[in-house]
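User: Can you help me understand a structure? I only have the sequence.
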Amino acid sequence: MQPAGTAVPTLSPPRAVSYDDPQEEPDLTDPVTRLTAALAGRYRIERELGQGGMATVYLAADLKHDRKVAIKVLKPELAAVLGAERFVQEIKTTAALSHPHILPLFDSGEAGGFLYYVMPYIQGETIREKLNRETQFGIDEAVRITTEVAEALDYAHRHGVIHRDMKPENILLHDGRAMVMDFGIALALSAAAGGRMTETGLSLGTPHYMSPEQATADKQITARSDVYSLASVCYEMLAGEPPHTGGSAQAIIMKIVTDTARPVTELRKSVPPHVAAALAKALEKVPADRFESAKAFAAALGNPTFTTAAGGVSVAATARAGSRARALIIGLSATTLIFAAVATWAMLRPEPPRPVSRYALTLPVDHPVFVGSLSQVASAPDGSWFVYSSPTSSGSTELWVKARDRLEPSVVAGGEGGRIPAVSPDGQWIAFTAAGELRKVAARGGSATTIAKDVGSGPVWLDNGTLAYSASGYRSIVRVAADGGEPEVMATMDSLRTAMPVAALPDAGGLLFHRCVGLCGGTSELWVLDSRSGKSKQLLPDAVWASYVHGSLIFARRDGTVFGAEFDLRRLAVKGAPVALLEGVVVTSLAQMAVATGSGTLVYLASAATSGESDAVWVSRDGRAVPVDSAWSFRMGPLDGWSLAPDGSRLAISIFGESSSSDVWVKELDRGQVSRLTFSGSQDLRPRWTPDGRGVTFVSDRGGNSDLYLRRADGTGTDSLLFASQLQVYESQLSRDGQWIVMRAGSNENGRDILALRVGQDTAPRTLLAGSYDEEALALSPDGRWLAYVSSETGRREVFVRPFPEVDSGKWQVSTTGGLSPVWAHSGRELFFLDGKGNLVSQAVQPGASFTRGGQRALFSMAGYREVGNYHSFDVAPDDQRFLMVRMRRGAETEAQVLVVVDNWIEEVKRRMRER
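Assistant: Let's start by predicting it. Here is the structure, written out as tokens:
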């Protein structure tokens, strides 16, 4: 990190101070030597990085923490008039700031007459250095950087800190990400100097970026001053020069106070009108005429519909232009005036609606859209490219981008294992889920960054730069900064419901999410979370996907029909009856469609273009997969599940039906017949065989709640209600001796519990595990001694084992890096589970009266195989040498898929709304 615009001398590292050799006495007049001696034992000065107007920057080693740091030492003439105690006291406010786009302050103080503060040493370049090299930034890049800095400013302003010295030299670009430096240092210096800054011959703020109130030494400097300075930096990134230039500092200040900046479009015609309008408003002379906050400025930069009363330029500039125009018109002849009037009318008349056009983009058969649970297509804001998840030959997934100006799609480097992609509002980043984590990668590709762990679904980009997602278990909606940090819970569901965010509303107005009643396999309600009040309410009774675009709420139902309705952003309410817009969209747990928020372009996967089929495979311990029956395929919902019969001859599996229901089927292995077992028209999910292999238990929401049922495996008789209560039953297992039924059921808002019922004896189940954590994916050992399960008690999901049924007599944590889906080997000598890296792991277990563990061994990666939320994602053959899993059929085994693109689709939506 080095200040730009100054010469950086090359210095040798200071020599070690030694008093033993007279020839090695240090030069105590050398500032580097003095500073080295003053900071000895804490920091080791290595070399000078550069000098600025107020400080000299040194690269140093933090001896206590073994890290590189940058130490800024105030110039002696400035330090001479600053009291060290007051300086340190004021700078503490800055040290408390913690934000992804603020370079933190590690330390500060006085040593040997030096006033200094310490920051991380980050290799990168400042905006000034890049401007010196390239003159101008790309428009999208400039807007993104400005938005990131605005987020940092907004955070600081809400904590009572104003930067006062925003300039290109104080914005560091690290891996393309903006980091604001010297945050609040100017305030600390001003306060510490007690108004005596003029005695130093130095000034706070840089002339080109000073606000008018700073230039006139106004004592009341507010957050709007930082907005003005940031707008000046953005202006220079776009135009290649600041809003005001001059031959001297006095000339620049005079222009800032008296002159109006030219509209940025005069210097760069390609700047979008809304960006020019936002800059014009942020550069107003009077603070009250600017945006009320940095957040509002950032929102305007990202809002294509933003304008000002003056049509995107300042009022003063418009007035001057009007005066010049009146003077010109006076000298025109009557004929010229007529032609001028006609030309003016032609320029000012409303732009005719752009034509709506439809066409198809055929995807290569070996890179299709992954049509499974929790997958979707996402669009860049301008609709110029789309991103989707695609299966790979190894059974994994990866992200692919289809740019509309290119013939073939291209893989996104860093998007391995990715599902549910979402594009950032500036189009620069793709967020996605992989292996239970929320990650992001640059749209151009690169190394993926993990943002959050224990993620169920999502993500959704909010226009303040944060990301919303469902936590594991889907019982809470959480948001986190795009650069990571401490997650914040936005909403919590009760124990009978789950939720998944689907879209953000503009201006941080709220979040659309679908809430599932029961097992979330069928109907989903569309709800809205009001970010102002924190309260939620239902919008529509049946919707699995939604988006807000240009005043309209677009939503899809499970049957693939898409509707539109007018939406009141102030009241967060649907206006009028929905209008049918489209049919035939592929829908799994989400709709395979996206609407570009900027251009209104639609892209969707047509149902005729893909089967969305899965198949069952045997996977050996070394990871080799062999199809169970290549002639058999099926569709599964996100929570269906499957189970092997005790003798391994049959498979009970829940299959997604045509009428949005799931039914239990029995498949004779390997290439035998398939017969349907249930016909309820409801969600019959998560089958488990009875120990004798004669029956299959399953959970079903046919009665409103999810209850436990039993059906004979040969299909005779009727479904028997095995257990019913006001709780929601999510899974069950019968012990091998047939004496116990163990269940997971929802009981309160703080979690789901594990219950046990002694068959033929208990009239009500006993609670084995209860509390504020989710316990899930239960598994009884073959000898009935041990209960394995997954719990979130450590902060992430891990596998635990307890004695059964006396669960309080012991507890062992089996996984350490995250754990899911525990399943016992038939021998009882192994416990298989998925670790946090997505591998299938074998935990050796020694037989005996006590739970004694051996070693763990990772067998193979589970990437590409279906995961059943909160349940088991595989089963084990009787010989413990093979695993039965489900995967999506690859595109090479189906017809080529077609993405349907509708340009300017929003025009069609508006027309349909008017015709309603």
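Now, to help you interpret it: The domain at 22-313 is CATH 1.10.510.10 (Transferase(Phosphotransferase); domain 1). Residues 139-158 form the longest helix (20 residues). Let me know which part you'd like to focus on.
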